[in-house]
Amino acid sequence: MRRSFEDFSAEVFRRRDVEIEKRKKQRAIITYLAPLAICLTLFFSTVVVMPQLLKGGSGAFDSDDDIMDGENSDNQGDVTDKGEDKIYPIAISYITVYTEQGRRVYSNAEDVWDVFLYVEDYPDAFIYSGEAPDTPMGAYYKVMVCLRDGTVHYYLLDNLTDDEIVSGFEHLLDSMDTQ
Amino acid sequence: MDNGASSYRRFLNGEEGAFEEIMLKYRDGLTFFIGGFVRDIMTAEDIAIDVFTYLLLNPKKYDFSVSLKTYLYMLGRSRALDHLRSRKRRMTVDISELENELADRESLEDSVLADERSRAVNRALGALPEKMRTVLYLIYFEELSYEETARVMKLNRKQVDNLLYRAKARFRLIIGEEGVQWI
Q1: All domains in chain B, ordered by first residue
Q2: How far is Cα A70 from Cα A54, in angstroms, rounded to an integer?
């Protein structure tokens, strides 16, 4: 049987409401699920993937490390390998050393070399990304190195006493300041 | 006569009751028009509901460049043809449903077609091919202009002229057999 006008009209408005609800749900999916997906991606990359990567890197001077194996380097004017089977990158844009007074940026190749020399003295150093843990002298032992290929690497001296870290970096910073 | 445009403007200004006026005015005609394509009043009514729902949900799509009636018939024809394309060729119809369908059709005819002569003419229209039937129906029953008919059928004015000429010639033959005088 045909609908009465009242039923016809009610059906039109009912379908309108159903469609509006459907659109709201679609909008909600875009509004809430998309950011959720981004958050999950960030969470997994930070909490799951990054630690795996960090565990994989045995040290800043590991010959398997991309930074040190020269893959990202043009090898022009290579710094010597100091008698060992290591090629040090020179394609470094700048490094940042975090100090209590704030960050200090060095772009001189010699400065970079100094940092590597210093780090090499401590084989327990490893690549680190993230905030430096609280220590009495805090930020001294976090070094950020930006390569010219756009990658950013942090170096953290671990398993060292605060004194070793402080004295080492003070020496490093002093040497840089005098250049 | 603004063919519903003033009601629609009031609806756009927030008067929901104005939309009911539009439905009241065009529901039967639109359902009947769609029924000419789908040959099933219930389906035609369902499609007509979809047309009004679309209008409710997309108020900005109607830009007043054609009359509201023309716009509704354009939507109706388009959806009816979509339905025909998607409908399965084989259909089973229950006898009781068929009886209801016939009753509904008569009731709708009573609403849209005022007199017996119009009904006889409409029945004769059913014997025509779809385009000829539609052009005659829109111009002589719905009293749309040639331009409006062209918009509904997605033809140009010249094509409507030609189609109408051929439709009238064919229709005269059919209507003559039914004994109804055609002016």
Answers
A1: 1-112 (1.10.1740.10), 115-183 (1.10.10.10)
A2: 19
CA distance B164 to chain A (A): 32
CB under 8 A, 24+ apart: contacts of B121-125: B121/B175, B121/B180, B121/B182, B123/B178, B124/B171, B124/B174, B124/B175, B124/B178, B124/B180, B125/B36, B125/B171
**Dist CA A20 CA B50 (whole Å):** 14
pLDDT (tens place) for every residue of chain B, 183 residues total: 566 788 888 888 888 888 999 999 999 999 989 988 888 888 999 999 999 999 988 888 888 888 889 999 999 999 998 888 877 544 555 556 556 666 666 666 666 666 666 767 777 787 888 888 889 889 888 888 999 999 999 888 888 988 998 888 888 887 776 555 544
For residues B139 and B171, the answer to whether their CB atoms sit within 8 Å is: no
- How far A91 CA sits from the closest chain B CA (Å)? 58
Query: Does ipTM come in above 0.85?
Result: no
Q: Does A22 touch chain B (CB under 8 A)?
A: no
A contact test, residue of B7, B21, B56, B98 with most A CBs within 10 A: B56
